């Protein structure tokens, strides 16, 4: 799947820490190349924190972790101005959001007010404190996590917040063989301590620019729009994906084409990425929820229904 040599080095580096999760690591790097962010919804202990730490170390990035709790304040995320008695001036102390790679752990455990503090950062790569807007470092990548099992004392992310994440996916439990490999690796020393950077931030920024040059044909754009439009008209859906979903899917497809060594997007890129880019942007109606219909099933039905574009030269 990964043919770009530098990105493949990062994937292999992360795989020293996270066993058997190449697809999930690749999706995270696709989001990073696209300038987007990832929401991981999974049970504790499956390697979410280790994966984002390994990615940060692999690109030599400044990494911060925010543990979201009910009493966390917006200023604990964005930063706060503190009065300096020596200079008799207020000095800004940056919060943990001002890093290259940020792990927002258990984001649904904090209040909506604190969750909203992330909105500007996720969308505009900036934070506003004390009336002053401060730009965040580039590259800027957030991986948020939430536990799907425990709902007591949690605040579900609103649609506007979910829409800011490029992808949402799960890591899942390892197989018997993969878990045995995990035990063998951590028996004496955790592998996270040994990995080193294989990609610089400057190289990553250059690649983010190169991704935007990947060609997207008008037929592919029309294919994306048709898929997104079907989410708005599906009989199981109460609220479909927004135009931001179309943009997210196109940008992610450009990144996927880039890491596969192509200069153009193909329909298979869209079909592979659609469940991760659109599933969390869809709200099912009450009947579908009662029938235990999942958004992944809805997206799968839509992909089967929408006609795949074919190059006219190939039609005989």
UniProtKB/TrEMBL annotation:
Residues 37-167 form the ATPase AAA-3 domain. GO terms for molecular function: ATP binding; ATP hydrolysis activity. It holds the Pfam family AAA_3. Residues 230-295 form the ChlI/MoxR AAA lid domain. The keyword ATP-binding applies. Keywords: ATP-binding, Nucleotide-binding. Belongs to the MoxR family. This is AAA family ATPase.
């Amino acid at each position: 799947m990964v043919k770009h040599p530098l990105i493949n080095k990062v994937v292999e580096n992360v795989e020293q820490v996270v066993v058997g999760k190449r697809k999930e690591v690749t999706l995270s790097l696709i989001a990073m190349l696209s300038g987007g962010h990832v929401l991981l919804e999974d049970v504790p202990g499956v390697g979410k924190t280790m994966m984002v730490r390994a990615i940060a170390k692999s690109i030599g990035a400044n990494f911060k972790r925010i543990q979201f709790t009910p009493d966390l304040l917006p200023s604990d995320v964005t930063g706060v101005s503190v009065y300096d008695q020596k200079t008799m001036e207020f000095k800004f102390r940056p919060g943990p959001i001002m890093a290259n790679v940020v792990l927002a752990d258990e984001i649904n455990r904090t209040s909506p007010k604190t969750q909203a503090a992330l909105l500007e950062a996720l969308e505009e790569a900036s934070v506003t404190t004390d009336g002053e807007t401060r730009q965040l470092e580039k590259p800027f990548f957030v991986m948020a996590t939430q536990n799907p099992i425990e709902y007591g004392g949690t605040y579900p992310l609103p649609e506007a917040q979910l829409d800011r994440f490029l992808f949402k996916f799960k890591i899942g439990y390892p197989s018997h063989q993969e878990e045995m490999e995990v035990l063998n690796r951590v028996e004496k020393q955790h592998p996270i301590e040994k990995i080193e950077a294989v990609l610089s931030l400057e190289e990553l920024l250059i690649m983010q620019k190169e991704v935007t040059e990947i060609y997207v044909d008008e037929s592919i754009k029309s294919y994306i729009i048709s898929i997104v439009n079907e989410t708005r008209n599906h009989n199981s859906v109460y609220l479909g994906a927004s135009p931001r979903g179309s943009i997210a899917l196109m940008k992610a497809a450009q990144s996927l084409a880039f890491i596969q060594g192509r200069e153009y997007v193909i329909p298979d890129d869209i079909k592979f990425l659609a469940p991760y880019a659109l599933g969390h942007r869809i709200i099912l109606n009450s009947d579908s929820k009662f029938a235990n219909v999942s958004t992944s099933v809805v997206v799968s039905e839509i992909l089967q229904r929408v006609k795949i574009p074919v190059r006219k030269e190939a039609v005989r």
